[in-house]
Amino acid sequence: MLARPMRGSLVIVLLVALVVAALAMQWLGVFADSGMPSPLPGDSLPGESPRSALTAPAGSLPTDALGTGIVATRTVLNSAPNTNLADEPTAVLRVLEHGTDRAIAGAPIRRVQDGSDLAFTDERGFAAVALLEPEQLAVVVDGFLLRMVPTRLGSTEAEPQLVPLVRDEWSIVRRFEFATTDGTPIDEAFVRLRPRNVPKTPPPVPAGDAIRQRAWTEHTMLAACPVCSDVPVQLGTWAEERVHRLKNGTDVRFIAPGEFTVEVATTSGWVAHKDLRIEANPRANAPPIRIALEAGAFVQGHVVGIVAGAPLADTKLTLQGGEPLGLMATTSADGAFRFGPLLAGRVTLHVRHGDHEPLAFGPIEVPGSDVRIPLQPLPKTTLRGRVRARPHLQPIAGATVKWSPSGSAPVIAITDKTGLFTLRATGTADARLAVQAIGYLAYAELITPGAPFADLDLWPATTAERLSQGLTALLEGIVVDASGQPVVHASVHWHPAQAAAALGVPGRRVLEGASLDLPLVARTGNDGAFRLETNAFGAGRLTLAGQTAGLDTTASAGQTKNGLRLQQ
Fold first, then answer.
1. Is the model's pTM score more than 0.70?
2. What are the structural domains of the chain?
3. Cβ 375 vs Cβ 408: under 8 Å
4. How do residues 45-71 score in pLDDT, each as one tens digit?
Protein backbone atom coordinates (compact mmCIF):
# COMPACT_ATOMS: atom_id res chain seq x y z
CA MET A 1 0.00 0.00 0.00
CA LEU A 2 2.91 2.41 0.69
CA ALA A 3 5.04 1.43 -2.28
CA ARG A 4 4.10 4.30 -4.58
CA PRO A 5 4.25 7.11 -1.97
CA MET A 6 7.51 5.79 -0.59
CA ARG A 7 9.10 5.76 -4.05
CA GLY A 8 8.14 9.41 -4.48
CA SER A 9 9.57 10.24 -1.06
CA LEU A 10 12.86 8.51 -1.85
CA VAL A 11 13.15 10.53 -5.05
CA ILE A 12 12.76 13.72 -2.99
CA VAL A 13 15.45 12.58 -0.56
CA LEU A 14 17.84 11.81 -3.44
CA LEU A 15 17.22 15.25 -4.96
CA VAL A 16 17.92 16.93 -1.62
CA ALA A 17 21.12 14.89 -1.34
CA LEU A 18 22.24 16.09 -4.78
CA VAL A 19 21.60 19.72 -3.80
CA VAL A 20 23.57 19.21 -0.57
CA ALA A 21 26.43 17.68 -2.54
CA ALA A 22 26.48 20.62 -4.94
CA LEU A 23 26.60 23.09 -2.06
CA ALA A 24 29.41 21.10 -0.49
CA MET A 25 31.45 21.28 -3.69
CA GLN A 26 30.85 25.02 -3.90
CA TRP A 27 31.89 25.54 -0.29
CA LEU A 28 34.96 23.36 -0.53
CA GLY A 29 35.95 25.39 -3.58
CA VAL A 30 35.92 28.52 -1.43
CA PHE A 31 38.56 26.95 0.78
CA ALA A 32 40.95 25.96 -1.98
CA ASP A 33 44.43 24.85 -0.93
CA SER A 34 46.59 27.80 0.05
CA GLY A 35 48.87 28.71 2.90
CA MET A 36 47.52 29.68 6.30
CA PRO A 37 48.08 33.38 7.08
CA SER A 38 50.66 34.23 9.72
CA PRO A 39 49.34 35.24 13.12
CA LEU A 40 48.24 38.86 13.29
CA PRO A 41 48.62 40.99 16.42
CA GLY A 42 45.57 42.19 18.26
CA ASP A 43 41.94 42.64 17.30
CA SER A 44 41.86 46.22 16.00
CA LEU A 45 43.55 47.06 12.71
CA PRO A 46 46.67 49.22 13.13
CA GLY A 47 46.27 52.91 12.52
CA GLU A 48 42.45 52.85 12.73
CA SER A 49 40.29 54.38 15.46
CA PRO A 50 36.98 52.55 15.74
CA ARG A 51 34.05 54.91 15.39
CA SER A 52 32.47 53.18 18.37
CA ALA A 53 35.04 54.93 20.59
CA LEU A 54 33.23 58.26 20.16
CA THR A 55 31.85 59.66 23.38
CA ALA A 56 28.09 59.15 23.79
CA PRO A 57 25.95 62.26 24.15
CA ALA A 58 25.14 63.32 27.67
CA GLY A 59 21.90 62.00 29.12
CA SER A 60 20.27 58.61 28.91
CA LEU A 61 18.36 57.18 25.99
CA PRO A 62 14.56 57.02 26.23
CA THR A 63 13.00 53.69 27.10
CA ASP A 64 11.67 53.37 23.55
CA ALA A 65 14.80 54.54 21.75
CA LEU A 66 13.55 53.53 18.32
CA GLY A 67 10.33 55.50 18.55
CA THR A 68 6.93 55.16 16.95
CA GLY A 69 6.93 53.96 13.35
CA ILE A 70 10.34 52.22 13.50
CA VAL A 71 10.50 48.42 13.47
CA ALA A 72 13.65 46.37 14.02
CA THR A 73 12.68 43.43 11.83
CA ARG A 74 15.48 41.12 12.98
CA THR A 75 14.49 41.25 16.64
CA VAL A 76 11.65 38.78 16.18
CA LEU A 77 12.67 35.16 15.62
CA ASN A 78 10.73 33.39 12.91
CA SER A 79 8.30 30.81 14.28
CA ALA A 80 7.61 27.97 11.87
CA PRO A 81 4.54 25.81 12.54
CA ASN A 82 5.16 22.07 12.47
CA THR A 83 3.07 20.63 9.65
CA ASN A 84 2.97 17.36 7.72
CA LEU A 85 3.47 15.32 10.89
CA ALA A 86 2.33 11.77 11.58
CA ASP A 87 0.11 10.82 14.52
CA GLU A 88 2.85 8.68 16.06
CA PRO A 89 6.65 8.30 15.81
CA THR A 90 7.89 7.00 12.48
CA ALA A 91 11.65 7.18 13.10
CA VAL A 92 14.04 7.08 16.06
CA LEU A 93 17.43 8.81 16.17
CA ARG A 94 20.21 8.23 18.68
CA VAL A 95 22.79 10.99 19.11
CA LEU A 96 26.22 9.94 20.42
CA GLU A 97 29.56 11.68 20.70
CA HIS A 98 31.92 10.47 17.99
CA GLY A 99 34.91 8.63 19.42
CA THR A 100 33.44 8.01 22.89
CA ASP A 101 29.87 6.85 22.11
CA ARG A 102 28.68 8.99 25.04
CA ALA A 103 24.95 9.69 24.83
CA ILE A 104 24.16 13.39 24.31
CA ALA A 105 21.01 14.53 26.12
CA GLY A 106 18.94 17.58 25.24
CA ALA A 107 20.12 17.79 21.62
CA PRO A 108 17.52 19.57 19.44
CA ILE A 109 16.32 17.70 16.35
CA ARG A 110 15.24 20.28 13.76
CA ARG A 111 13.89 20.49 10.24
CA VAL A 112 16.46 21.87 7.82
CA GLN A 113 13.73 23.43 5.69
CA ASP A 114 12.43 25.90 8.27
CA GLY A 115 14.44 25.37 11.45
CA SER A 116 11.48 24.19 13.56
CA ASP A 117 12.14 21.84 16.50
CA LEU A 118 10.74 18.32 16.23
CA ALA A 119 12.21 16.65 19.32
CA PHE A 120 15.00 16.66 21.93
CA THR A 121 17.16 13.69 22.86
CA ASP A 122 16.63 12.04 26.25
CA GLU A 123 19.37 11.03 28.71
CA ARG A 124 20.11 7.97 26.55
CA GLY A 125 20.51 10.10 23.43
CA PHE A 126 17.24 8.86 21.87
CA ALA A 127 14.73 11.10 20.06
CA ALA A 128 11.57 9.95 18.27
CA VAL A 129 10.18 11.98 15.35
CA ALA A 130 6.77 11.69 13.68
CA LEU A 131 7.19 12.41 9.97
CA LEU A 132 4.86 11.42 7.14
CA GLU A 133 7.72 11.40 4.63
CA PRO A 134 11.54 11.32 4.81
CA GLU A 135 13.05 14.77 5.42
CA GLN A 136 16.43 16.36 5.96
CA LEU A 137 16.84 17.03 9.67
CA ALA A 138 19.69 18.57 11.64
CA VAL A 139 21.15 18.12 15.10
CA VAL A 140 22.27 21.46 16.55
CA VAL A 141 24.37 21.43 19.73
CA ASP A 142 26.69 24.29 20.64
CA GLY A 143 30.29 23.13 20.90
CA PHE A 144 29.75 20.35 18.34
CA LEU A 145 29.76 20.46 14.57
CA LEU A 146 26.27 20.81 13.12
CA ARG A 147 25.07 17.53 11.63
CA MET A 148 22.64 16.87 8.79
CA VAL A 149 20.39 13.81 9.13
CA PRO A 150 18.41 12.36 6.18
CA THR A 151 15.64 10.61 8.10
CA ARG A 152 15.29 6.85 7.78
CA LEU A 153 11.63 6.03 8.35
CA GLY A 154 11.01 2.77 10.15
CA SER A 155 13.97 3.06 12.53
CA THR A 156 13.17 2.10 16.14
CA GLU A 157 14.81 2.16 19.56
CA ALA A 158 15.92 -1.42 18.92
CA GLU A 159 17.49 -0.34 15.61
CA PRO A 160 17.85 3.46 15.78
CA GLN A 161 19.39 5.78 13.22
CA LEU A 162 22.77 6.65 14.76
CA VAL A 163 23.97 10.25 14.55
CA PRO A 164 27.62 10.75 15.61
CA LEU A 165 28.33 14.30 16.83
CA VAL A 166 31.88 15.58 16.44
CA ARG A 167 33.31 18.11 18.90
CA ASP A 168 34.28 21.35 17.18
CA GLU A 169 38.07 21.42 17.64
CA TRP A 170 38.85 23.59 14.61
CA SER A 171 36.75 26.76 14.71
CA ILE A 172 38.35 29.95 16.02
CA VAL A 173 36.31 30.78 19.14
CA ARG A 174 36.22 34.40 20.31
CA ARG A 175 34.09 35.90 23.05
CA PHE A 176 32.20 39.17 22.48
CA GLU A 177 31.44 41.68 25.22
CA PHE A 178 29.31 44.83 24.85
CA ALA A 179 29.19 48.00 26.93
CA THR A 180 28.36 51.68 26.54
CA THR A 181 31.23 54.15 26.28
CA ASP A 182 30.97 54.80 30.03
CA GLY A 183 31.43 51.08 30.75
CA THR A 184 27.82 50.09 31.44
CA PRO A 185 27.30 46.46 30.23
CA ILE A 186 24.75 45.82 27.49
CA ASP A 187 22.78 42.60 27.88
CA GLU A 188 22.08 41.84 24.21
CA ALA A 189 23.16 43.15 20.81
CA PHE A 190 22.58 42.40 17.15
CA VAL A 191 25.87 41.89 15.33
CA ARG A 192 26.79 41.66 11.67
CA LEU A 193 30.35 40.67 10.74
CA ARG A 194 31.21 41.89 7.24
CA PRO A 195 34.26 40.09 5.81
CA ARG A 196 36.91 42.53 4.53
CA ASN A 197 39.68 40.09 3.75
CA VAL A 198 39.22 36.38 4.42
CA PRO A 199 42.08 34.38 2.85
CA LYS A 200 41.33 31.06 1.20
CA THR A 201 42.31 28.21 3.48
CA PRO A 202 41.92 24.45 3.19
CA PRO A 203 39.42 22.66 5.43
CA PRO A 204 41.12 22.32 8.85
CA VAL A 205 39.85 18.80 9.58
CA PRO A 206 42.71 16.30 9.32
CA ALA A 207 42.52 13.63 6.65
CA GLY A 208 41.83 10.02 7.51
CA ASP A 209 38.57 10.38 9.45
CA ALA A 210 35.60 10.32 7.06
CA ILE A 211 33.08 11.09 9.83
CA ARG A 212 34.95 14.21 10.97
CA GLN A 213 35.44 15.43 7.39
CA ARG A 214 31.79 14.90 6.52
CA ALA A 215 30.72 16.61 9.76
CA TRP A 216 32.81 19.69 8.90
CA THR A 217 31.27 19.89 5.43
CA GLU A 218 27.75 19.65 6.85
CA HIS A 219 28.65 22.20 9.53
CA THR A 220 29.68 24.81 6.97
CA MET A 221 26.50 24.25 4.95
CA LEU A 222 24.04 24.31 7.84
CA ALA A 223 25.60 27.37 9.51
CA ALA A 224 23.94 29.63 6.90
CA CYS A 225 20.48 28.11 7.34
CA PRO A 226 17.61 29.00 9.69
CA VAL A 227 18.14 25.67 11.43
CA CYS A 228 21.03 27.13 13.47
CA SER A 229 19.84 30.71 13.99
CA ASP A 230 20.66 30.42 17.71
CA VAL A 231 24.21 29.07 17.20
CA PRO A 232 26.67 31.87 16.28
CA VAL A 233 28.88 30.44 13.54
CA GLN A 234 30.60 32.98 11.27
CA LEU A 235 31.10 31.64 7.74
CA GLY A 236 32.97 34.60 6.29
CA THR A 237 32.23 35.57 2.70
CA TRP A 238 29.73 32.73 2.25
CA ALA A 239 27.12 34.28 4.59
CA GLU A 240 28.28 37.85 5.10
CA GLU A 241 24.73 39.21 5.53
CA ARG A 242 23.98 37.00 8.54
CA VAL A 243 23.10 38.86 11.74
CA HIS A 244 23.86 37.24 15.10
CA ARG A 245 21.72 37.91 18.17
CA LEU A 246 24.31 37.77 20.94
CA LYS A 247 24.05 37.90 24.69
CA ASN A 248 26.88 39.71 26.45
CA GLY A 249 29.79 37.28 26.78
CA THR A 250 28.68 34.94 23.98
CA ASP A 251 31.28 32.97 21.99
CA VAL A 252 31.29 33.26 18.19
CA ARG A 253 32.88 30.46 16.18
CA PHE A 254 34.79 31.66 13.10
CA ILE A 255 35.50 28.91 10.60
CA ALA A 256 38.33 30.92 9.03
CA PRO A 257 40.68 33.73 10.08
CA GLY A 258 40.64 37.12 8.42
CA GLU A 259 39.65 40.77 8.68
CA PHE A 260 36.08 41.72 9.52
CA THR A 261 34.04 44.87 10.03
CA VAL A 262 31.76 44.50 13.03
CA GLU A 263 28.44 46.37 12.95
CA VAL A 264 26.48 46.37 16.23
CA ALA A 265 23.11 47.81 17.26
CA THR A 266 20.61 47.41 20.07
CA THR A 267 16.88 48.06 20.29
CA SER A 268 17.61 50.53 23.10
CA GLY A 269 19.39 52.83 20.65
CA TRP A 270 23.10 52.00 20.98
CA VAL A 271 25.32 51.42 17.92
CA ALA A 272 28.95 50.61 17.10
CA HIS A 273 31.34 49.95 14.23
CA LYS A 274 34.73 48.29 14.62
CA ASP A 275 37.34 46.59 12.42
CA LEU A 276 38.82 43.30 13.63
CA ARG A 277 41.51 40.80 12.77
CA ILE A 278 40.71 37.22 13.70
CA GLU A 279 43.91 35.22 14.09
CA ALA A 280 44.37 31.73 12.70
CA ASN A 281 45.74 30.46 16.01
CA PRO A 282 44.59 32.72 18.85
CA ARG A 283 46.20 32.40 22.26
CA ALA A 284 44.42 30.08 24.66
CA ASN A 285 43.85 33.05 26.96
CA ALA A 286 42.98 35.50 24.17
CA PRO A 287 41.07 38.46 25.66
CA PRO A 288 37.44 38.95 24.70
CA ILE A 289 36.54 41.26 21.85
CA ARG A 290 35.13 44.31 23.59
CA ILE A 291 32.73 46.55 21.66
CA ALA A 292 32.01 50.04 23.00
CA LEU A 293 28.65 51.37 21.80
CA GLU A 294 27.54 54.99 21.49
CA ALA A 295 24.06 56.48 21.44
CA GLY A 296 22.72 56.28 17.91
CA ALA A 297 21.60 59.24 15.83
CA PHE A 298 18.41 59.62 13.77
CA VAL A 299 17.24 61.05 10.47
CA GLN A 300 13.78 62.56 10.35
CA GLY A 301 11.65 64.38 7.83
CA HIS A 302 8.67 63.95 5.49
CA VAL A 303 7.81 61.97 2.35
CA VAL A 304 5.57 63.73 -0.19
CA GLY A 305 4.21 63.18 -3.68
CA ILE A 306 6.24 65.12 -6.23
CA VAL A 307 3.18 66.20 -8.26
CA ALA A 308 0.87 67.72 -5.66
CA GLY A 309 3.26 67.84 -2.72
CA ALA A 310 0.73 65.95 -0.58
CA PRO A 311 2.12 63.90 2.35
CA LEU A 312 2.40 60.15 1.74
CA ALA A 313 1.33 57.96 4.64
CA ASP A 314 2.45 54.31 4.99
CA THR A 315 5.70 54.86 3.07
CA LYS A 316 8.40 52.30 3.99
CA LEU A 317 12.03 53.38 4.49
CA THR A 318 15.04 51.07 4.86
CA LEU A 319 18.80 51.63 4.81
CA GLN A 320 20.78 50.90 1.65
CA GLY A 321 23.13 48.04 2.45
CA GLY A 322 21.18 47.20 5.59
CA GLU A 323 22.33 47.23 9.21
CA PRO A 324 22.12 44.79 12.14
CA LEU A 325 18.57 45.55 13.28
CA GLY A 326 16.94 45.39 9.85
CA LEU A 327 15.33 48.76 10.50
CA MET A 328 12.17 49.77 8.67
CA ALA A 329 10.37 53.05 9.29
CA THR A 330 6.80 53.81 8.20
CA THR A 331 5.54 57.33 7.64
CA SER A 332 2.58 58.61 9.65
CA ALA A 333 -0.58 60.21 8.28
CA ASP A 334 1.26 63.50 7.68
CA GLY A 335 4.12 61.75 5.83
CA ALA A 336 6.53 62.15 8.75
CA PHE A 337 9.26 59.61 9.51
CA ARG A 338 12.10 59.03 11.96
CA PHE A 339 14.85 56.56 11.11
CA GLY A 340 17.60 55.12 13.33
CA PRO A 341 19.57 54.46 15.44
CA LEU A 342 22.56 55.03 13.16
CA LEU A 343 26.16 56.11 13.52
CA ALA A 344 26.94 59.66 12.46
CA GLY A 345 27.91 59.85 8.80
CA ARG A 346 26.30 59.73 5.38
CA VAL A 347 23.65 57.18 4.39
CA THR A 348 21.21 56.41 1.57
CA LEU A 349 17.60 55.45 2.28
CA HIS A 350 15.45 53.18 0.15
CA VAL A 351 11.94 54.62 0.01
CA ARG A 352 8.88 52.63 -1.15
CA HIS A 353 5.22 53.61 -1.45
CA GLY A 354 2.64 51.42 -3.18
CA ASP A 355 1.46 54.10 -5.63
CA HIS A 356 4.84 55.72 -6.34
CA GLU A 357 8.19 54.89 -7.90
CA PRO A 358 10.70 53.40 -5.43
CA LEU A 359 13.61 55.74 -4.73
CA ALA A 360 17.16 55.50 -3.38
CA PHE A 361 17.42 58.86 -1.61
CA GLY A 362 20.81 60.17 -0.57
CA PRO A 363 23.44 60.38 0.54
CA ILE A 364 22.15 62.39 3.49
CA GLU A 365 23.82 63.37 6.73
CA VAL A 366 23.19 61.59 10.04
CA PRO A 367 21.91 63.08 12.28
CA GLY A 368 19.48 64.98 10.09
CA SER A 369 16.17 66.78 10.44
CA ASP A 370 13.63 68.35 8.10
CA VAL A 371 14.61 65.92 5.30
CA ARG A 372 12.08 66.16 2.44
CA ILE A 373 11.79 63.12 0.16
CA PRO A 374 9.65 63.57 -3.00
CA LEU A 375 8.31 60.49 -4.83
CA GLN A 376 7.21 60.18 -8.46
CA PRO A 377 3.76 58.58 -9.06
CA LEU A 378 3.65 55.21 -10.80
CA PRO A 379 2.32 55.08 -14.38
CA LYS A 380 -1.44 54.62 -14.55
CA THR A 381 -1.00 51.16 -16.11
CA THR A 382 0.95 49.84 -13.11
CA LEU A 383 -0.31 46.58 -11.59
CA ARG A 384 0.01 46.01 -7.86
CA GLY A 385 -0.97 43.06 -5.74
CA ARG A 386 -0.07 40.46 -3.18
CA VAL A 387 0.50 36.71 -3.54
CA ARG A 388 -0.77 34.59 -0.65
CA ALA A 389 -0.96 30.90 0.26
CA ARG A 390 -4.26 29.18 0.92
CA PRO A 391 -5.85 28.37 3.29
CA HIS A 392 -4.36 30.73 5.91
CA LEU A 393 -3.49 33.47 3.39
CA GLN A 394 0.08 33.99 4.56
CA PRO A 395 2.26 36.00 2.10
CA ILE A 396 4.48 34.11 -0.36
CA ALA A 397 7.92 35.65 -0.91
CA GLY A 398 9.86 34.99 -4.11
CA ALA A 399 6.83 34.18 -6.28
CA THR A 400 7.16 35.01 -9.99
CA VAL A 401 4.42 37.25 -11.41
CA LYS A 402 4.35 37.52 -15.23
CA TRP A 403 2.31 39.95 -17.32
CA SER A 404 1.96 38.64 -20.92
CA PRO A 405 0.42 41.23 -23.29
CA SER A 406 -0.41 40.10 -26.83
CA GLY A 407 2.37 40.93 -29.28
CA SER A 408 4.78 42.28 -26.64
CA ALA A 409 7.49 40.87 -24.44
CA PRO A 410 6.30 39.70 -21.00
CA VAL A 411 6.98 41.80 -17.90
CA ILE A 412 8.11 39.92 -14.79
CA ALA A 413 8.11 40.85 -11.10
CA ILE A 414 9.17 38.92 -7.97
CA THR A 415 7.20 39.23 -4.73
CA ASP A 416 8.98 40.62 -1.67
CA LYS A 417 8.95 39.07 1.80
CA THR A 418 5.45 40.46 2.40
CA GLY A 419 4.15 38.86 -0.82
CA LEU A 420 3.78 42.25 -2.57
CA PHE A 421 4.64 42.95 -6.20
CA THR A 422 4.56 45.94 -8.54
CA LEU A 423 5.00 45.77 -12.31
CA ARG A 424 4.48 48.18 -15.16
CA ALA A 425 1.89 46.75 -17.48
CA THR A 426 2.13 47.76 -21.14
CA GLY A 427 -0.64 48.75 -23.50
CA THR A 428 -4.33 49.19 -22.69
CA ALA A 429 -5.77 45.76 -23.60
CA ASP A 430 -6.58 43.03 -21.10
CA ALA A 431 -3.88 40.37 -20.79
CA ARG A 432 -2.89 37.31 -18.78
CA LEU A 433 -1.28 37.78 -15.36
CA ALA A 434 0.26 34.49 -14.22
CA VAL A 435 1.78 33.53 -10.86
CA GLN A 436 4.17 30.69 -10.08
CA ALA A 437 5.77 29.81 -6.76
CA ILE A 438 7.70 26.76 -5.59
CA GLY A 439 5.39 24.43 -3.67
CA TYR A 440 2.15 25.90 -5.05
CA LEU A 441 -0.17 25.35 -8.00
CA ALA A 442 -0.06 27.87 -10.85
CA TYR A 443 -2.50 30.77 -10.96
CA ALA A 444 -3.58 32.97 -13.90
CA GLU A 445 -6.07 35.78 -14.31
CA LEU A 446 -7.20 38.14 -17.09
CA ILE A 447 -6.33 41.66 -15.94
CA THR A 448 -6.84 45.20 -17.25
CA PRO A 449 -3.73 47.45 -17.08
CA GLY A 450 -4.01 49.76 -14.08
CA ALA A 451 -6.52 47.48 -12.29
CA PRO A 452 -6.91 48.01 -8.51
CA PHE A 453 -4.69 46.22 -6.00
CA ALA A 454 -5.58 42.51 -5.86
CA ASP A 455 -4.76 39.47 -3.75
CA LEU A 456 -3.75 36.39 -5.76
CA ASP A 457 -4.18 33.23 -3.67
CA LEU A 458 -2.42 29.96 -4.48
CA TRP A 459 -3.18 26.37 -3.51
CA PRO A 460 -0.47 24.04 -2.10
CA ALA A 461 0.98 21.81 -4.84
CA THR A 462 1.54 18.61 -2.87
CA THR A 463 -0.97 16.13 -1.54
CA ALA A 464 0.89 15.98 1.79
CA GLU A 465 0.65 19.73 2.33
CA ARG A 466 -3.00 19.94 1.27
CA LEU A 467 -3.84 17.08 3.59
CA SER A 468 -1.99 18.64 6.53
CA GLN A 469 -3.92 21.89 6.00
CA GLY A 470 -7.27 20.05 5.95
CA LEU A 471 -7.94 21.01 2.33
CA THR A 472 -8.36 17.44 1.09
CA ALA A 473 -8.91 13.86 2.20
CA LEU A 474 -7.23 10.62 1.05
CA LEU A 475 -8.92 7.34 0.24
CA GLU A 476 -6.44 4.46 -0.10
CA GLY A 477 -7.00 0.80 -0.83
CA ILE A 478 -6.63 -2.06 -3.26
CA VAL A 479 -8.59 -3.60 -6.12
CA VAL A 480 -8.60 -7.41 -6.47
CA ASP A 481 -10.25 -9.89 -8.78
CA ALA A 482 -12.48 -12.82 -7.79
CA SER A 483 -9.43 -14.93 -6.88
CA GLY A 484 -8.01 -12.18 -4.66
CA GLN A 485 -5.22 -11.14 -7.06
CA PRO A 486 -4.41 -7.42 -7.52
CA VAL A 487 -5.97 -5.74 -10.57
CA VAL A 488 -3.55 -3.51 -12.45
CA HIS A 489 -4.63 -0.16 -14.01
CA ALA A 490 -8.23 -0.38 -12.78
CA SER A 491 -10.18 2.92 -12.64
CA VAL A 492 -11.57 3.73 -9.19
CA HIS A 493 -14.29 6.42 -9.04
CA TRP A 494 -15.44 8.49 -6.06
CA HIS A 495 -19.14 9.41 -6.04
CA PRO A 496 -19.68 11.88 -3.19
CA ALA A 497 -23.18 12.28 -1.84
CA GLN A 498 -22.58 16.03 -2.01
CA ALA A 499 -20.34 17.70 -4.60
CA ALA A 500 -17.43 19.83 -3.47
CA ALA A 501 -18.30 23.48 -2.91
CA ALA A 502 -17.45 25.62 -5.93
CA LEU A 503 -14.62 27.98 -5.06
CA GLY A 504 -13.66 31.02 -7.04
CA VAL A 505 -13.10 34.74 -6.87
CA PRO A 506 -16.36 36.64 -7.50
CA GLY A 507 -16.06 39.45 -10.01
CA ARG A 508 -12.63 38.29 -11.22
CA ARG A 509 -11.72 36.58 -14.50
CA VAL A 510 -9.55 33.78 -13.15
CA LEU A 511 -8.21 31.50 -15.87
CA GLU A 512 -6.42 28.96 -13.68
CA GLY A 513 -6.01 28.21 -9.99
CA ALA A 514 -9.17 29.72 -8.49
CA SER A 515 -10.51 26.33 -7.44
CA LEU A 516 -8.81 23.17 -6.29
CA ASP A 517 -9.98 20.93 -9.13
CA LEU A 518 -9.20 17.33 -8.24
CA PRO A 519 -10.32 14.38 -10.39
CA LEU A 520 -12.82 11.99 -8.85
CA VAL A 521 -10.96 9.03 -10.29
CA ALA A 522 -7.69 7.20 -9.62
CA ARG A 523 -5.94 4.24 -11.28
CA THR A 524 -4.37 1.29 -9.54
CA GLY A 525 -0.67 0.59 -9.86
CA ASN A 526 1.17 -2.63 -10.54
CA ASP A 527 0.33 -3.79 -7.01
CA GLY A 528 -3.38 -3.06 -7.42
CA ALA A 529 -3.21 -0.19 -4.93
CA PHE A 530 -5.00 3.13 -5.45
CA ARG A 531 -4.70 6.52 -3.77
CA LEU A 532 -7.51 8.99 -4.41
CA GLU A 533 -7.32 12.58 -3.14
CA THR A 534 -10.54 14.57 -2.96
CA ASN A 535 -11.97 17.78 -1.57
CA ALA A 536 -15.53 16.42 -1.90
CA PHE A 537 -15.98 15.55 1.77
CA GLY A 538 -18.62 13.50 3.50
CA ALA A 539 -20.33 10.23 2.66
CA GLY A 540 -19.98 8.67 -0.76
CA ARG A 541 -19.27 5.51 -2.71
CA LEU A 542 -16.18 4.09 -4.37
CA THR A 543 -16.86 2.08 -7.53
CA LEU A 544 -14.95 0.59 -10.42
CA ALA A 545 -15.46 1.97 -13.91
CA GLY A 546 -18.77 0.84 -15.39
CA GLN A 547 -20.12 -0.49 -12.07
CA THR A 548 -22.76 0.93 -9.75
CA ALA A 549 -22.16 -1.38 -6.82
CA GLY A 550 -19.17 -0.48 -4.71
CA LEU A 551 -17.93 0.42 -1.26
CA ASP A 552 -19.67 3.06 0.87
CA THR A 553 -17.24 5.17 2.90
CA THR A 554 -16.59 8.72 4.13
CA ALA A 555 -13.97 11.28 3.13
CA SER A 556 -12.94 13.48 6.09
CA ALA A 557 -10.95 16.69 5.70
CA GLY A 558 -7.30 16.27 6.64
CA GLN A 559 -7.60 12.52 7.18
CA THR A 560 -6.46 9.40 5.33
CA LYS A 561 -8.73 6.38 5.21
CA ASN A 562 -6.82 3.30 4.15
CA GLY A 563 -7.45 -0.43 4.02
CA LEU A 564 -10.29 0.00 1.51
CA ARG A 565 -10.90 -3.04 -0.72
CA LEU A 566 -12.80 -3.24 -4.00
CA GLN A 567 -13.46 -6.44 -5.91
CA GLN A 568 -13.69 -6.48 -9.69
1. no
2. 51-60+169-295 (2.60.40.1120), 297-375 (2.60.40.1120), 382-458 (2.60.40.10), 463-567 (2.60.40.1120)
3. no
4. 333 333 332 233 333 344 446 777 899
